[in-house]
Amino acid sequence: MSLHISKKIGIVSWVVTILYFVIEPIFIMTSIAPYNIMHQAMSDLGVTSCGKYTYSIAPHEICSPYHFWMNVLFIVNGITLSVGVLYLSQYLKKNWLNKLATVCILIFAFGNIVSGFIPADINLFWHSIVAQIGMITVLFGLWIYAKSLAKGKRWTYFNLFVVIAFLILIILLFFFPLPAGLIQRLFYGVIFLWGTVLTILLND
Predict the structure, then answer these.
(1) Distance separating alpha carbons of residues 62 and 50, to the nearest angstrom
(2) How far apart are CA 116 and CA 59, in angstroms?
(3) Rounded to whole angstroms, how far apart are CA atoms 148 and 117?
(4) How far is Cα 93 from Cα 201, in angstroms, rounded to an integer?
(5) CB–CB of 144/99 below 8 Å?
(6) pTM above 0.90?
(7) DSSP secondary structure of the chain
(8) Predicted pLDDT of residue 119
(9) In which band, very low, low, confident or very high, does the pLDDT at 3 lie, cut at 50, 70 and 90?
């Protein structure tokens, strides 16, 4: 017997997921150290210690007094994103390729959960590795979803191309001084918006 996620739960899960960007500014405003949304990673708000070089690639000052709740937000966000993806998967034919696509997007969601449980200053490798892998696998997931969906196909292809563009910009961060914090948020924001709008389209 397969798990069934109701329409109500599916819609609520995506709404709660995208609300991340409504809640995050609260933690930015409560940061004791100056926080630059254009250049600093989302993870900085969950760092448990204060100072410079709280983790190896963070020479800037970090001090987020409500880091515990920020990490809870990461975990909750990953869970609601996972539920939302599983809800959307119910609109696909049941075959191994579509199941693989769902797993690919779930890895991206799981990255948020891991990031919340393991802050960057505790262990940067384990904090970021699943999220980094997820940024690749989510592309394959979106591509397969775009091919398989009866409704929302063009919307999914559009978001896939946008996410690819942002991933290229993330790679270019190693060579050019681009606004890393903004690019990261746009990458995540596109995924969150994709699922929210797709849920609306599928229930239209």
Answers:
(1) 5
(2) 21
(3) 34
(4) 17
(5) no
(6) yes
(7) ------HHHHHHHHHHHHTHHHHHHHHHHT-SS---TTTS-GGGGG-SS-BS-SSTT--S-B--TTHHHHHHHHHHHHHHHHHHHHHHHTTS-SSHHHHHHHHHHHHHHHHHHHHHHS-TTT-HHHHHHHHHHHHHHHHHHHHHHHHH-SSSHHHHHHHHHHHHHHHHHHHHTTTS---HHHHHHHHHHHHHHHHHHHHHHHT-
(8) 97
(9) confident
What letter represents residue 3's amino acid? L
In this structure, the dihedral spanned by the alpha carbons of residues 143, 140, 130 and 175, taken in order and rounded to 10 degrees, is: -90
pLDDT in tens, 185-204: 999 999 999 999 999 999 87
The one-letter amino acid at 157: Y
- Over the stretch 77-114, which tens digit does the pLDDT of each residue have? 999 999 999 999 999 999 999 999 999 999 999 999 99
In which residue are the tokens 């993806």 written?
A: 85
Degrees, nearest 5: CA angle 195-198-199: 85
Cβ 196 vs Cβ 18: under 8 Å: yes
The per-residue pLDDT for range 4-25, each reduced to its tens digit, is 899 999 999 999 999 999 999 9
